[in-house]
Amino acid sequence: MKGLAERIARALQKLRTGGVQAAKAGSEQAQAVYRSVKHPQRFAKTKAEKQKLLAATVQQSEELIARTQAELQQGSARCGRVKQRAAATLRRMVAVARTLLPQIKQWMKTGKVATEKILHAGRPAARAIPKGKGKVKFGMKWLSKRVKGGYLFGKRVAPRADETQMPEEAVQAYRQVFGAKATPKLGVYDRGARLPAAAAKLTKAGVRKVGIPPRGPGAWLVGAQEQKVVKSERGKTEGSIGRLKSRKYGFSHRQERSVETQDAAGQRAIVSANLTTLMRDLVAQAKPAR
User: Fold this and answer.
1) Are 258 and 179 members of one domain?
2) Could you say which of 66, 76, 151, 278 is the most buried, measured as most Cβ atoms within 10 Å of its Cβ?
């Protein structure tokens, strides 16, 4: 709510500077919401008091969004560039608020983080990702692929992307890199994908062996020897993801402000890791020649 009010206040201030007199009251209201956001944590002594103050802030935010929508309807499409950008910001914040405020209300009522809860008003693609048993991860969901030798490639996917679809997505991404007819002999994925459904898709795509661990007491679709390979490759993949998230490559906790630059920063981290792996292989090949 702090980020929401802050962005609305800045946009309304630009409209106010541009001569839109109606923006003055909205700007003051946004600043009031901005100031009240941390009040429950600073001054509330009991949980009930904190909930009461937080509910008042949510109500103020809803009133601010209603005022913002009314001012947008009164605005003219033939205004200057600065006003147009400010109006576009207000439209984005109204869209974010339609999702965010009900999610906050749900958290206040149940104490549980809403599925796909928006984490940042300026980066609505970053969401809460429930992982079961009360565990929640926060951020953007990526499908990371590792090929033999430790080389990586990947892309951002939707926060609630179906895990069962991901093995097939990985094969399609593999073909984008290695050619339209290229097909891995062994497809490895974790047990997040439902084995029967994922296996059918991979088999149809031409993958000979499906190395996905079954859920519960289910049976593997590969023999004991391939199972060892699958477990080894899964461990290497997790290690590669941890390597990407290290401070050296900066895949996690990026400070970019837009979804596009977030995606670019993720790809930059992957390329950097691959270049390091390539130099390692080149040095290893040069040693026997020496």
Assistant:
1) yes
2) 151
Q: Tell me, what DSSP letter sits at residue 24? A: H
Structural domains in the chain (count): 2
Q: Report if residue 29 sits inside a domain.
A: yes
Domain for residue 167, yes or no?
yes
Chain segment 149-194, per-residue pLDDT in tens? 899 999 998 877 888 999 999 999 999 999 999 999 999 998 888 8
Rounded distance between C-alpha atoms, residue 5 and residue 21, angstroms = 19
Domain extent at residue 59: 2-111
Q: Which residue has the higher pLDDT, 2 or 232?
A: 232
Cβ-count burial 151-184 (b if 16+ within 10 Å, e if not): bbbbebeebeeebbebbbbbbebbbeeeeeeeeb
Q: What is the pTM of this model?
A: 0.70
213 touches 235 (CB < 8 A): no
CA distances to 36, 58, 107, 115 from 103, rounded to whole Å, are: 19, 11, 6, 8
At 140, the pLDDT band (50, 70, 90 cuts) reads: confident
d(CA 251, CA 248): 9
| Cα gap 37→227, rounded to integer Å | 52
Residue 270 CB burial class (10 angstroms; 0-12, 13-18, ≥19): buried
